Amino acid sequence: MPGKIDGIDVAVRARQLHPGIAIIVVSGYALDLWERLGKLDPPPGFLRKPYRTKEVLEVMRQLTP
What we know:
The protein has helices at 7-17, 31-36, 53-63; strands at residues 25-27, 46-48. The protein is mainly alpha-helical. The mean pLDDT is 79.
């Protein structure tokens, strides 16, 4: 993302504005590195790159009622 904001910052702000929002985090980094940032609890929707369509669909099913 351009500028000084990253995807995690966007997710944090989205949660502040809409506490129940479903967030899918996609990263090429390991989950433990992302957790160490400490900005959000790891969501159930964490996808590590590369991912398959099947994995995206499963995460979407987990996050939607």
